[in-house]
Each structure stands twice: as C-alpha cells, then as structure tokens.
Amino acid sequence: MNIVQLTKLLSYLLISTFILVGCSDDDDSPINGNPDQIANNLPLGSGGTPNDLLSDTTFKSLTIEIVAVEGFEPTSIAIENFRTFLEDRLNKPDGITINLRTVPSSNTAPFTIEEIREIEKNTRTLFNEGDDIAVYVYFADGSNENDSGEQVTLGSAYKNTSMVIYEGTLRRFSRSGPRAPSLSTIETATLHHEFSHLLGLVDLGTPQQSPHESINDQNEGNNHCNVSGCLMQASIQFTSGIMGMSEVPRLDAACIADLQANGGK
Ligand SMILES: [Zn+2]
Ligand SMILES: [Zn+2]
To answer: Which CATH number is 119's domain given?
Structure first.
C-alpha cells in the first residue's frame, strides 16, 4: 500500500497539481528487546497506543526522538510545522519535546523495513518513561528497496511508536522539476501522514466515526482515507496555491473527528 504513480505524477505536473507519494505501513510482530521497552515495540496501532498519543489519560507529555543521518537532517521549517501539527491534535498538558541528533550513515541504502528496525535497535535511546510517551523518527539517507520507476515510498510507520522518513527520496523529489514542492513541504506532509498512522488513522487503532476508509484492489480497507485532498489519502496530493507554492495537505473533517473521539483535540 505504498504508491506513487510516476506517470500520474508527470501528468499532474502539467496542471500544477500533483500526487506524489505513498507510504507503507508495516505491522509485523514486535522485535525482541529490553522488557522495559516492550511498550514501544508493539505492532502499529496496537496496545492502545493511538489513545496514549492523543489523550492525556496515561501520558501527559510526548518526546519525539529524531535521529537523522548526517547531511539528511529535516529542515527547521518542517520541524516547526510538525510541532504545530502535534500541538493542534494531541492533549499533552506537560508539553511536546522534539529532540534531533545526527548519526553516521549505516551504508545500507536502499532499505528494507527490517534494516530500518535494525538501525532503530542501534540508535534509539528514548522509551516511555513515567507519564512521558516516546516516539522514534529516523531520517534515512536513501530510499526504500521496493521503490520502482512507478511507485515510491516516502515514509513508513512500522511500529506503534516508530517511523522512518526516506529523506534521500524526498530530496530527489524536491529537485525533480520547477513545479516540485519544496523540500520542507514534502517533509512536513510525510511527517504528518506517517504520524497520523501512529495516531491510528484510518481504522488502525482509532475507530472510524463515519465510514471513510479507502479500499484496495482486493476490496479490503487499506488504512487510508477516501476523502479527496485529505492528508491520509494513500497518495499524498500537493496542490499549488497562490504564487505556485505547493501547500501541505491537511486532515479532513472525518479524520479529525476520529482523532477527537479517541482522546485527541
Ligand atoms: Zn499511509
Ligand atoms: Zn481523511
């Protein structure tokens, strides 16, 4: 369920709107780890984690640990947009902290999700502690191994508190043509989209308040939203606004209603 149709991309480029990306969600079984870290090693959307992230029932604060490969750090604009997005949706009265540090390249690009899990084991230092919930975000210096000329993965939420952004791919797209969205716009959209999967969208640990989950070719729900223009569509759409600046897609009313019903704002 990760998708970017490059042919589609090219045609959309011509009319200054385009669909980029997709993501892949991965809910394999948890990795083995320190027993104290089990709460951070659950399958995506499980263990009540969406509610833990959205509400202040169990966790009053959130710490995001961003680990970026040197030279592949996110833009500061994207980080500030991400902070605003989190503050708008999450009930965390004791605050949201975003830590960023860099690490050397693993030299293993392109990546399988198993390789990303391995990198997380080696680089993640923050786990839930007391009433602070921790989320890990890795900015990878390359692409997903399954990318092809026709479909590209920008990011993936692969465990209940873990996600990867394929920053190498994002940078390539930002340079793909005069109408390409800026790097900070693509980063912001990908961060918001993947984090919204951690928040349980769509029907991934946060129940739907109205039916709006999109379906795949096999007629199965694919944990994305069927509302045109929503951030949680399977392929993120960037539309050009005034001055040709591309805008970051937002959650539609149906997705926000789901989050609010599960403890969010
Ligand atoms: Zn997605
Ligand atoms: Zn939606």
So the answer is: 3.40.390.10
- Which ligand has the shortest distance to the CA of 227? 2
Provide the residue range defining the domain that includes 236: 6-261
Report CA(23)–ligand 1 centroid distance (Å). Answer: 4
Which residues are CB-contacts of 156 (< 8 A; sequence separation ≥ 6)? 2, 23, 24, 25, 26, 113, 116, 144, 163, 164, 194
Distance (angstroms) between ligand 2 centre and the Cα of 104 equals: 36
Looking at all shown ligands, the one closest to residue 196's CA atom is 1
Number of domains within the chain: 1
| 14 pLDDT higher than 80 | no
Which tokens is 246 given? 């591309």
Q: Please name which ligand lies nearest the alpha carbon of 202.
A: 2
CA 206 / ligand 1 centre spacing (Å): 14
Which structure tokens are listed for 189? 């959209």
Does a structural domain hold residue 1?
Answer: no
What H or E segment, with its residue span, contains residue 13?
A: helix 6-14
Question: pLDDT digit string (tens) for 134-192?
Answer: 999 999 999 999 988 777 899 999 999 999 999 999 999 899 887 788 999 999 999 99
